[in-house]
Write a structure and sequence with these properties.
With 110 residues, this protein is mainly alpha-helical. It has one domain (6-109). Helix content is 77%, strand content 4%. The chain contains 3 helices and 2 strands; from the N terminus they run ααββα. It has a two-stranded antiparallel ribbon. β1 (62-63) and β2 (66-67) form a beta hairpin. α1 (6-26) packs across α2, α1 (6-26) packs across α3 (68-109) and α2 (35-56) packs across α3 (68-109). The model has no long low-confidence stretch (mean pLDDT 84).
Length: 110
């Protein structure tokens, strides 16, 4: 699906927009606030939907060379992993001065 037509691009955009809206506005699973955060989820979801057929296979419903269910699963996986990665990174950064610095000071003193 490297040389996709415009309809396939739009279909993947609709799928990623629906999944991003579900995550951002309905489930409220987010790292950042606002419309730009939703747009970022949509872009990540589009990439996940695009790669979804390669990862999850070519099965169930296909419409103009876009497999719907693998595209939805790919968008869900990409958006969810993106939010989890940013949340984990934020926790590591927030915990670094409190635990990392004290641990290094104790090692230096010992």
């Amino acid at each position: 699906m490297l040389g996709m037509n415009f309809f396939a691009f739009l279909l993947l955009a609709v799928i990623s927009g629906a999944v991003a809206s579900l995550y951002h506005y309905v489930l409220r699973i987010r790292f950042l606030e606002g419309t730009s955060a939703w747009f970022g989820k949509m872009l990540i979801g589009w990439l996940g939907a695009w790669v979804g057929s390669s990862i999850f296979g070519h099965w169930l419903w296909s419409y103009r060379s876009v497999y719907i269910v693998p595209a939805i699963l790919g968008a869900i996986a990409a958006i969810h992993l993106n939010v989890l990665a940013w949340r984990a990174l934020a926790r590591v950064i927030a915990a670094e001065p409190a635990t990392g610095g004290a641990a290094l000071a104790r090692k230096a003193a010992a």
